[in-house]
Design goal:
Helix content: 40-55%
Strand content: 15-25%
Shape: flat
Strand order of the largest sheet: 12-11-15-16-17
Structural class: alpha+beta
Number of helices: 22
Number of strands: 22
Length: about 600
Amino acid sequence: MPCARPCWLKSSKGARSRSKRAEPSNRSKLGIAMHEAEQEIQALIRGGESLAVEFKSDVKSLPDRDLVAAVVALANTEGGDLFLGVEDDGTPTGLHANHRNLAGLPALIANKTIPSLAVRVEALELEGQPIARIQVPKSRQLVSTSDGLLQRRRLRMDGTPEAVPFYPHEFVQRQSSLGVTDPSALPVENVAVEDLDPIQRIRIRNAIKKYGGDQSLMPLADDELDGALGLTVSVGGMRRPTVAGLLLLGSDMQLRQHLPSHEVAFQVLRGTDVLVNEFYRKPMLETFEEVEVLFRARVEEEEIQVGLFRVPIPNFDRRAFREAFVNALVHRDYSALGAVHVKLDDDGLSISNPGGFVEGVNLDNLLVADPRSRNPLLADIIKRIGLAERTGRGIDRIFEGMLRYGRTAPDYSMSSAHTVSVRMSAADADAEFLRMIVEREEQTGAAMPIDSLIILSRLRNERRLRTADLAKSVQKPETVVRGTLEKLVEAGMVEAHGTGKGRTYTLSAKVYRGAGQKAAYVRQAGFDPIQQEQMVMSFIDMHGSIKRADVVELCHISPDQAYKLLARLKKRGEIEQIGERKGAIYKRAR
C-alpha cells in the first residue's frame, strides 16, 4: 500500500530513540577529540618558542603593530602558531580586555598586511587563562605590514628564535627556495657575450660526447648553442649571459667579480693531517673535471668473481660521487656566500652546499619527492649536457652506489635550513651481498630497484623487520612496500614469518647459506610452529604455567602470534586458560 506521507517519517521515532542512544558515544568522541587538541596545544607551548612557534604577552595589551609584525615574520619563514596571552617562558597570563573579542582579529591582520594574509584564530583556555592561537600559513610571496615592515624569523646562536629584517638581497633566495623564480635564468647585464671564454663551449661539446648528452646540440653554431641551452638571452637588443651561462662560460675574473659565491673546496684528511686543500673559482665544467681527477686518484678497487664475470668493488662509487657533486653544484644557493665542500677523510666522503632543501623536499620524502631545483635553468643545462641523470632521479644513483655494495645508505641527517649535506661511509663492502645482487640482476636482465636494495640492506643489518618498519626507509605506503616484499619472497631472497599485522620478514635461508651463515638464519627465522608448541609445553612442565608475554619472549614471536599459538593448544585440549585478558595464565589441561 502506498505511503500517505513520506515513508522515512514513519521510522523517525525509532531514529530519534537510536540517536539518543548514540549521543553518549558521540559526546565521548567529542570529549576525546577536545582532550587530544588540548594536549597538542600544551605540547606546543611546553616545547617553547621556535621558528614556527611564537609567544606574545598581552598583559599590557599588545599593540596591533607588534602583533601584525610577528605574524608577518612567521609567514615569511615557515608559518606556524602565534600564542597571544602567553609569556616568553610559556606561562599563560591571559588576554587583555581589548583582545577578548577575537572575531575581528583575522580581518585586522588581513587589512594590515600586504598582500593580505588569511589567518585562523582560535580562542582557548589554559590553566584558567583565556589565550588565543593564531595559525599563520607559510606565504609563497613576500609579506609586509601595511607600514612597509618586512621581517622573517631566524635562530640565535643559543637556539632561541628572533624576528629580523628581511633584506633585499635575501628576496631571490626566498623566492627560489619556494620555486617561484629561477635565479640561474637572470641576465648578467654588465657582461658582454664576446667576453665569455670560448674554450668553455668546447668543454660543453666534449661533455655531450663523453656523457651521452643531447646530440641535437652538437651541430649548432656557438650562438645557436648558447640560445638553445639558455646560456644567453636578449636584453635591450643585446645578447647577455644568464647566471647559468656565466657559471659555464665565464672567465675566472668574471666569476670572481659577478658571482663571488661560486666556489668549490676539495679536501683530503688523514687523521688531523691535511693532505689536499684545493679551492676553485673556475667555470663549472672545468671545476667538475679537475675535482673528479682528484677524486678518481683516491678510488681503490678490488674484484670478485660472479659467474663468468669479474665485478669491481670500489671504496667509493664513481657514479654516486658524480651525482652528489653535480647536485651540490646545481642546487646550491648562489645568493649565499660559501663554498661547495667535498671532503674525504678516514670515515668516508662528505659533500655539502649552501642552501637547504627546496620547498617540498625534506629528509622524509627525499626518495619520492618530485624532482625540483633551486636553479631550474642550470639543472636543465647540466641534464642536457649529460652530466646529471636525465630523469631527475640522481638521488637513486647515490643510494644505489652505496647499498649495492652492502654499505649503509647515504646520510643526509646533517642537512639544515641553510645547508644540504650528504655523507657516504667508507666502511668495507660486503662481497657476498654484492654477489647476491649481481646474480639477481643477471637473472632478470635489469638493475635491482632501489626499493628492493633498501629493503635487503635493512634486513641484512637489522635481521627481522615488519612492513611498517621498512616503509619509513623506502618512503612509500605500506601497500607498495608489501608488494615489493612479496616479489623478493618470490625471488627467494626474503622469507615471510607469521600472518597479519604480526608478519615479519628476514633474509632467506638461501641468502644466509650463500654467505656461509646457516646458524645466523636459524637464529633470525626462529622455530617452526611444532617446535614452538613443544617449547611452550616444556615451559609449563618446568614452571607450572605460562603467560602470553612469556610465549612472546620464549619463541621470539609477536603477541598476536603468541595468542594464536595458545589458542591452537587450547583447542586441542592440551592446555587450559585460567583468568582473562592480561592476567590470564595457561596450564596443562587436567
